[in-house]
Structures
1.
Amino acid sequence: MPDTPFPRLNRRAFLKAALATTAATAGLALASSRGRTEALAQNTPARIVIAGAGAAGLAVAAQLTRRLDRAEITLIDDRITHLYQPGFTLVAAGLWSPERVQWANANYVPSGVRWVRSRVAEFDPETNRVVTQDGTAVPYDFLIVTTGLDLRYDLIDGMEQGLIGPDNRIGSVYAGPEAALRTWQAMAKFREQGGDAVFTRPPGDLKCAGAPLKMTFVTDDRLRETGMRSRARMTYAAHDGTLFSVKPVNEKVKELFAGRGIEVAYSHVLESVEPGRRIARFRHGTETVEMRYDFLHVVPPMRAAPPVADGPLSWKDGPFAAQGWLEVDRATLQHRRYPNIFGVGDVNGVPRGKTAASVKWQAPVAVQNLIDTIAGKAPSAAYNGYTSCPMITRIGQAMLVEFDYEGRLTPTLPLIDPLAESWAAWIVEEKALRPVYAAMLRGYG
């Protein structure tokens, strides 16, 4: 992996960046605690099941073990490796190794939590039980759903994860650490030869909606490093008429794309790929548009996992029904039909909140409201939709974009302008977030 090419800094800039790093580690942790009511451990024999052992499930398990005495807490998931997904972009940029984003899940499962190593097959809220794929029925008094989402490459005709890599000139930062590495290899091959690069974004909600833009910016910067930018044409295929759902960020990205010669094909939805001919086909209104590529970055459609999407807990109508998201109140994160159920993380059917930073804010809200419910009280904590997107714009620079449900910018670090490219924001992304994230898994922040 190549070294990160940091710009030369004067003393003042260096101190500013160092302060930003310190502030990021402390400030983001404090920010995630807003809306949480601290309390002494509550004595309860309640049976609590957490369905899913990703970032959301582990963070919730850790917080519950500190907030509750005598509770019987069960974590259901068969994954043994935890993936630090915010680092996938850095792997795909050629900066990190895949090993750096993989941790042992066992290291983060709190002592005293029963770990059922199987996947959820079915939720049965009428009888208050979860059924696993091996047929085990796990009863609960309270349930927290943290099953995340599924990457649906199969919804793109001709596309599968095995195509990711330099041989097919296809990348996809979402598919895992090894796929992120193969994405880097495909990008590296492209920057040696040039040609046509196409970047996609599917309709609907997705995890870390800034990642498709990050990969576009990173590819542009990598081309410039080798003097090959003039031999490459770059096109970003936006799923609708915008590049980013937050208006000021959208305008900034449009400005940056225009300045760097990145073309935009608005309202182009990827429907199929033909790797042998290097052809991507898009739906554009009622037309089918073909684009030839020498590097194609595919972002798959995303859906809630089948036990949620196809079961009784999903939205049955409205904007979140098509992707099968969990039906929760956007503020309390409590299920709208089953008050003993809460949701945290990517699975939630709320207007925003599919990032690791969102989990940091959601977890304490759901935990507090679960504890309130156990005590027979109304939920007292509220989630405001906080979402954070460290938008890499070139190697060594980024924008730290933070916003809420209403699309209002909500910066937590006063040293960093959310709409300005800065090294300080890059330091947050490349250095500070990983330890903050690890602390979150242990229930801190």
2.
Amino acid sequence: MSGLPSFRAVMLMVAAVLVVTAAAGGVVVVLGEDLVGTAQEQPVRRFRPQQTPQQAPQQSPAPRLDEMVPTAEPVKDFGEGGPGITVTPPRVLAVAAGTVPKQTRFRLGELAHVQKVAVVDAGAVKVSGTSLNLLAVDPAEFRSWTPQPVADQPAVWSALTRGELVADADAMKKFGMILGAVYQVDGGPRLRVAASASLRLHGVDGLISADLGRSLGFAQGVAVLLHGKEGEISQAGVKKLLGKRSQVVVLDAAARTPKRRQPPARQQVTVGRPGSYLELYKAAATRCPGLSWTVLAAIGQVESGHGRNNGPSSAGALGPMQFMPATWKHYGVDGDGDGKKDIWSPYDAVPGAANYLCANKAGQGGERLRKAIWFYNHSWDYVNKVMSIADAYAKAYA
């Protein structure tokens, strides 16, 4: 959209006035135009090896990781179907220079063809040099402002309630983000990408909860969404009410130029977990800056053949990454947001392995990495085997 650069500029302008200094007890929200990195983790495009516990039987030729689907019981609140939400798609999106007064909201609602108005918080965060423009919303109130498939997907709204990120599908592709990966907000919390969806909000890279937005110092009440007769809401009228420094973007441009009208694109909503072991290893590697996904994949191959031989082993190790229960107690994680740390679930075990390796400084590479792998299984032959397989994966998936 031609309006996108200026929309981003306004988002940056809005968020810039909301920087809270550490001395004031707040969080510094830095704005910019870069790409997403990872929480205690690394940018999605820079991965380095990682590992898991214990040794397993002799390995056969490694299968294609992008064709292997991890198996575990479904996440409870993930699934199709919803409470029958009637959507009211936004026709116009605007960002004001400051909080929109209540009187102005009323006047926006009185504009010709406007049937519904919503005002939400907005801001930008920087993650490893990449700027993301986000709306901070109340899940229950904002649900009707999204496309029907998104509104009907309970997992999206559960994720927001848990304080996780719902990323726009285009932003996922543009920034190389991975479903299930965890990214570190500069000066702020870690955000797990719990879902991606076609939000159809030009210039908006994703949604977070209003509570999380407030903790990040987002501008309150600056983003306006207007619903009404398609193609009829006056862009100029909205800008007049919000002021010259506001940015107004029409979201129903196709309806305003009938000759270019095309059938609506198929809506996609992806929630929950990575769809293959390849994506799972890549997502889990983001939990440890400097750790390559290939190391995790190599350990997964050696330990269980990527979940094909989960044990228990003769030593009592369990699951696809062969954790000893006592080790799991300290380093296991809930990798898929289902509320439990399951040693048998690859969605928890693989990020748990990354967590364990990172605690042993695997992200520093070199001898630190080799030593971390050794801690995983006290054998230098094991270390050499893992590193050899990791190199093979790096070449195979380069």
